[in-house]
Structures are given as C-alpha cells and as structure tokens.
UniProtKB/TrEMBL annotation:
Transmembrane segments: none annotated. It holds the Pfam family OsmC. NCBIfam families: PRK10738.1 (NF008009). InterPro entries: KH_dom-like_a/b (IPR015946), OsmC/Ohr_fam (IPR003718), OsmC/Ohrsf (IPR036102). This is OsmC/Ohr family protein. Gene3D superfamilies: 2.20.25.10, 3.30.300.20.
Amino acid sequence: MEATVKWLDGAMFVGEAGSGHAVVMDGPEDLGGRNQGPRPMEMLLLGTGGCSIYDVLAMLKKSRQAVSDCRVELSAERADAVPAVFTRISLHFVVTGRGLKESHVRRAVELSAEKYCSASIMLGAGGVAISHSFEIVEEDAGGGEA
C-alpha cells in the first residue's frame, strides 16, 4: 500500500492513495488552516469506522440478514499532552433492517473487533481502549423505522 501527502499551504494538505483517490486535510484557522477538510486525526478515526463497518456489513450480508441501513457512531478521547494520541475510542453500530437476528449482529461486531478490522486492532494493540456496542432498529413493512 502506498500513499502521498502533499502540502498545499498553511495547514492544508492533499493526500492521494495508491488507488488514485484523493482527500483534502486541513487545520483550524487559529493554526494556519482554512478549515476546509477534516483534520488528520479525524481521518484516522473515520478510517477506523470505515474499516469496521465494512466488516460488519460483509458478515451480515453473508449471513443473509435483511439490512437496509447501517452506521457506526464513533467517539474518541485524546491525551491532554503531546503527543495527543487517542486514549479511548468507542464504536456504536446502529443496524436497521427487517427481522435481524441479534446473535448475527453481535457476532459480526465481535468478529470485526477481534479478528478483521486491522485499524481498530492496531490501535488497540497500541494502548487505545476500544469498545464496541450495537443496537438494532426494526424496519416496518413500509420501509421506515418501526
């Protein structure tokens, strides 16, 4: 895997992944940025959520669960001192669908946390306290939440 991050100006950078996709990262105005993109640490948090939700959805689809929507809500705390590393990350999955089996959702979240999500497992091995939780929202026959 390869990537390049190029400084644009102030506290703004553009990152380009080996796949050719690019993203702008920027800092707050009080630190020389223009606040036109996520901060690098926000990107790390978003990447962790993306890695984990990908796993959970893949496993739920494989187990033929009727998922109509899924999101992972992330919250994180950082150290007060430099380096301001993550000290705690919480991932809360909200899975919506019809007739979803709690055991399947629980197992998908557990497997992502323990075996498949490289990002959260790497951060956890580095000392970040990571927690996972989930809730199931039943969709009614009309396609909305019951």
